[in-house]
Amino acid sequence: MGEPGTKELLSLDELEAAGNARSGRKHILSILVENKAGVLTRIAGLFARRGYNIDTLTVGPTEDEQYSRITLTFDGAMHSVDQVTKQLHKLINVLKIRDLEPADTVARELALFKVAVEGAQRAEVMQISEIFRGKVVDVTRRSVIVEITGTTDKIAAFERMVRPFGLIEMMRTGEIAISRGRGET
Amino acid sequence: MRAVDAIMECLKAEGVEVVFGLPGGANLPTYDAFVDAGIRHVLVRHEAGGGHAAEGYAKATGRVGVAFATSGPGATNIVTPIVDAMMDSVPTVFITGQVRTDLLGTDGFQETDTLGITMPVVKHSFQIRSPLEIPRAIHEAFHIARSGRPGPVVVDIPQDLSRADITYEPVTDLNLPGYQPTTEGNTKQIRQAAKAMASARRPVIYAGGGVINANASQELSEFATSDRFPVTCTLMGLGAFPAPHPQWLGMLGMHGTRTANYAMDEADLICCIGARFDDRITGKLSEFAPHAKFIHIDIDPAEISKNIPAHIPIVGDCRNVLRKLIKEYRALEGVDTSRTDEWWQKIRAWQEKHPLRYEDSTDAEIKPQYMVQALYEASGGDAIVTSDVGQHQMWAAQHYHFAKPRRWINSGGLGTMGFGLPAALGAQVGCPDQTVVCIAGDGSIQMNIQELATCSQDKIPVKVFIMNNGYLGMVRQWQELFWDKRYSHVDMGSYPDFVKLAEAYGATGMRLTDKTTLVDDMKTALATDGPVLVDVRVTREENTYPMIAPGQPARDMVG
């Protein structure tokens, strides 16, 4: 096929279309934004009106107070990551978007589980928590609250383990993620 | 100085020569500043008229259009022009008043969340929280509105902050780290595009409003004539390529020519420049241009591969990219210009077999298509023509052959009825030496008819030609064709009496009913001083053809 640098004309049949296919996997977008009023509304509104579903979303300060970091996950089987990031980039307050590769990323989530347990069951739940490196942060006669951090999968696994005991409430923060190695996310 | 006086200084520094607007409680301080500012202000009769006038001004001149409105209902009234400017990429700045900061969030009198309401439909917006932010916000607003893909920017200023005493210094360093439009175009991709064009046996150039926004019409013609590339334009792109030209196929899309749509359908390579594969262009997306590969040139990366995957995507300003593309194309060796001979034979056969046609009346009745042809003749084909939205808009697009850019001003993306008259007003203010004509429908003209008063008071001599069929014609056509002629609320009767109405507004009113004298009568209207409203009575039930029926592929055009 005619390479851009050569004089050779190219055959149209060999052109391949770029862009906009669905990836079929979960995506974690790390979005660096200006720390200004209304930025989160602009991002949430963009997702809503373009019909993209957000799975989780976290916002927090960064090492530089001018900027905030939004970590957002969505399903790449439902939406084209290419189109999502291009639309996000059109927002004036968005500086940088990174579609994090799972293998090169450390992602963590915090979850709190309130489980209905009494007597012997309490010991059993505490034992499971230990295996998951969780912490019991509150105990009453008829309940415990367990704090777990880890990947989304680990938290889901813990949920499966404790649900049969009587899960009163579960709260999750959604993932935050940082790229591995020396470079900035 | 007062913050409001600083606003005026900012406008002057941005080269603003006119503002369209209407005062109210929350922008009283701003209007006080107009008294001594030395900036022309056109007092519109409704904020929507002011917003569309700013759009018309921007589209006719290429400069940023500016509209002011007060808080609450003033702000909600300009929402339609804001959306319109967003959909059609019109560089505009809207400055709205807001209630005092101590009333914010209390449902105060004429309070509305202007930023919240407009957030989904602006390119960007600024909520002023400190008077010191005002100058920077306004300069940044102008920069954002006019650069990259142009669009509307809203600046919302609480009344008390606008009265604050601040020091004004012109802002030269913009602080927009997240906003850096790509304008140059990737050289390798451009070279690749040139080679693909040189290989194509059935190429088509499909150009849109982006070419006009980028002032790239000259370059488009140069590129098209670097070989014998056939050219079609979207509704928004009309005038980007001169209509009377041997390589011109006519407009494409729902009411485009058969030739243009058939050419897209059979093309092997489509070079899309500053257009966005809207559903009114593609018809049934899955059957759109089934044999084609796509080059897509656009300043907005999000448009590329949005609806149609691009084989050669090029992000950049159309003029920059076209200049490079011309250079690359001319540098190619061994380009066989006879490769498109067969293609041209096919195109010529379509053109011969399917010209734009209609059955003309045998008596004095005025067919709507003839009305546009007559206006083309009466105006020498060189007027700035604005339109409203509907059948008259499509007939105007088909039969007024635009030879230059910025001559055709209409509402494409949003399809806003009531756009035409205020847009004409704005265009005339921006281009005082041009003939500005508005082709309106009898339905849509009434949606902003109040701006005739503005035209009379400010001596803005627009000539409005109402294509009066007594119907909401396009809706009637769809009810006829797709809803078994079950006409539901489309008959407008013959109200109002437009001649009397024109006179009441201080304009000249005329009524034309005779085809045989139409061209001369139109010349008379055009030669009349001041604003003129002409009620042209046309055939009542005429349909706009040809047409790609909704959801159908282009090759199945009807009519």
Give descriptors for this structure.
heterodimer; A: 185 residues; alpha+beta; Alpha-Beta Plaits; five-stranded antiparallel beta sheet; 4 helices; 26% helix; B: 559 residues; alpha/beta; Rossmann fold; 3 domains; six-stranded parallel beta sheet; 22 helices
Written account of the structure:
The complex is a heterodimer of chains A (185) and B (559). Chain A is of the alpha+beta class and 185 residues long. Chain A has two domains: 20-100, ACT domain (Alpha-Beta Plaits, 2-Layer Sandwich); 106-179, ACT-like. Chain A, domain 2 (Alpha-Beta Plaits), CATH 3.30.70.1150. Chain A has helices spanning 39-50, 81-89, 120-131, 152-166; strands at residues 26-34, 56-61, 67-75, 94-100, 105-116, 135-140, 143-150, 167-172, 176-179. In chain A, the strands form two sheets. In chain A, strands 5, 6, 7, 8 and 9 form a five-stranded antiparallel sheet that branches. A four-stranded antiparallel sheet of chain A has the order 2-3-1-4, with helices on one face. In chain A, a hairpin with a 2-residue loop joins β6 (135-140) and β7. In chain A, α3 packs antiparallel against α4 (152-166). Chain A is elongated and about 80 Å long. The model of chain A has no long low-confidence stretch (mean pLDDT 91). By secondary structure, chain B is of the alpha/beta class. Chain B folds into three domains: 3-162, Thiamin diphosphate (ThDP)-binding fold, Pyr/PP domains (Rossmann fold); 187-353, Rossmann fold (3-Layer(aba) Sandwich), CATH 3.40.50.1220; 368-537, 3-Layer(aba) Sandwich (Rossmann fold), CATH 3.40.50. Chain B is built from 22 helices and 18 strands. Chain B has helices at residues 3-13, 28-37, 47-61, 73-77, 79-87, 114-118, 134-146, 159-162, 187-199, 209-213, 217-224, 258-266, 279-282, 318-331, 341-353, 368-378, 391-399, 420-430, 451-457, 473-482, 498-504, 518-527, and strands spanning 18-21, 40-43, 65-69, 92-98, 124-127, 152-158, 203-207, 231-233, 248-251, 269-273, 293-298, 312-315, 384-387, 408-409, 436-441, 463-468, 508-512, 532-537. In chain B, the strands form three sheets. A six-stranded parallel sheet of chain B has the order 2-1-3-4-6-5, sandwiched between helices. The longest helix of chain B has 15 residues, at 47-61. The model of chain B has no long low-confidence stretch (mean pLDDT 97). The chains are: A alpha+beta (185), B alpha/beta (559). Chains A and B meet through α1 and α2 of A and α9 of B.
